[in-house]
Each structure stands twice: as C-alpha cells, then as structure tokens.
Design brief:
This protein is mostly helical. Helices cover 79% and strands 0% of the residues.
C-alpha cells in the first residue's frame, strides 16, 4: 500500500466526520432549505472513504500481530484484503472523479459563500454555551446510574456522541482559550478506547467472509482471538475513562468555561 494513499484516505474520512459535525452546529444559523442534501452528500464521501480506511486499519493491525499468527494463512489473508482494498480505493477514486460529485462540490461551495443563506445575528455567546452543554448532556445520557451500555451497538452510539462533543470543543477553542485542552484530554482518552472497540467490531465484519476458508481461516481465528483479548481489556478500563468525564469536577470545569462566553 502506498503510504500517501493511506494517509490521504485517513485525512479525507476524518474531514468528512468533522464537516458533518460542523454542519450540525451551523444549522441554527442557516436559512436555506437544502441542509439535509448537503449533509447527505458529505456522508456519501465519508462512506466511500470508509470502505478503504477500514481495510487500511485492519491490514496495519494484522501486520503488527504477524508474529502471533500462522504465516502462510496470514499471507493469503493479507493478499485478499489487499485486493478488497484496491477495489474499494478504485471505487473511491471513481466516485471523486464523477461528474455528480463535482456538481455537489460546486453546490456546496455556493451555499457556503452565499451570505443570503446565513443568519449572522446570533453571537457565539448566544449559542455557544447551550450548544456545548447540550452535547455533553447527550453524551452523559448514555450513562445509566453509573453503568455504561452493555451492548456494543449502544457503545457505538455513545462513541458517536463523544466524537461530536470533542468536535464541539475544538470548534470553540479560539473563543474558550487554552484551558479547553484540559477538557479535551479525558475525552480523547475515552474516544481512543471506544475507537479500538469499534475497530475490533469492524475487523470482525470484514473478516467474516474469510473465516471458513481453509487458506485464510487459521489466521482469521487466531487474529479474532487476539482482538477479543484486547476488547476485554479495553472494556475493563472504559469505566475508569468514563468516570473522569462524568465527574462533578469535569462538569464544573466545563461550566466554568461556558460562563466566560
């Protein structure tokens, strides 16, 4: 895999996630009527990039665990995943080169630069505090009397809300000042744990078609066993990460920044 391609796809996927979160935040000051179409268009880019990025992450992790997996079976598995990655990458390039995508980019640029589409009357201090706190409340709502969700699907939804909370804080960094980093650090630690758990789920889905194959099955089963051990360790540590975010001290620091707006 060309490293430039791996990094570029990663940056593209992250950019789409940040942009969709930013669009959600800008909705209250947007006066147009095609907001959903814009958000949907960005989502299409993210999904196309995700099909490539998910395999990049899996291939990199497989390589890091090569010494613990049956060599011949691993080579076969890496080859097949590499072929899947090549197909997904070609699909992404075709998507980005398509006239439909070009029209969407032009439409998106027109909306972003059309002053008549925006309501510039609300000030940051009028919307910022409630926006930040609302995202924190949405994240805390996953906590049921001190217990995190048991189902992996619910943890995934919590991860999404945590990601949105992180993007909100980053968006207001210039306004809130350097102290916002103190609030971002425990959020990043929590997201890192959740991200690993999500990678394990995605890896299991991508590997499922290769699990029963005689050539790739041994590597798949060995790898899944290793990732299950990692998942158990991450799940055991997750409550400690969450405790920092759910603490009274964290809420006090967050509110202290908000009242400065």
């Amino acid at each position: 895999l060309a490293s430039t391609s791996v990094y570029a796809v990663h940056d593209l996927r992250v950019a789409t996630r940040r942009l969709r979160s930013t669009l959600r935040l800008l909705a209250p000051v947007y006066a147009g009527d095609n907001w959903r179409a814009l958000n949907r268009g960005i989502g299409e880019i993210g999904r196309a990039a995700g099909a490539v990025r998910d395999r990049d992450v899996l291939l990199a992790d497989l390589a890091s665990r090569a010494s613990a997996l049956p060599a011949e079976s691993l080579v076969d598995l890496q080859q097949r995943l590499g072929n899947e990655r090549a197909v997904a990458h070609a699909t992404l390039i075709n998507f980005l080169d398509d006239a439909h995508h070009a029209r969407f980019i032009r439409r998106f640029a027109r909306v972003m630069n059309d002053l008549s589409s925006w309501d510039n009357r609300p000030r940051v201090r009028d919307l910022g505090g409630s926006t930040i706190w609302r995202h924190y409340e949405e994240l805390r709502a996953h906590d049921q009397d001190g217990l995190l969700p048991a189902a992996i699907e619910d943890l995934h939804l919590m991860r999404i809300d945590g990601m949105r909370m992180r993007y909100v804080l980053e968006l207001f960094t210039d306004t809130l000042g350097p102290n916002v980093d103190e609030l971002g650090q425990p959020l990043v630690a929590f997201q890192d744990h959740m991200g690993v758990l999500n990678d394990i789920v995605v890896a299991s889905l991508l590997l499922a078609p290769h699990a029963d194959d005689a050539a790739t099955g041994p590597a798949v089963m060995g790898y899944i066993a290793l990732r299950e051990q990692q998942a158990n360790a991450m799940l055991a540590e997750l409550p400690m990460c969450w405790a920092q975010l759910a603490s009274e001290a964290y809420r006090s620091r967050l509110m202290g920044l908000i009242v400065q707006l």
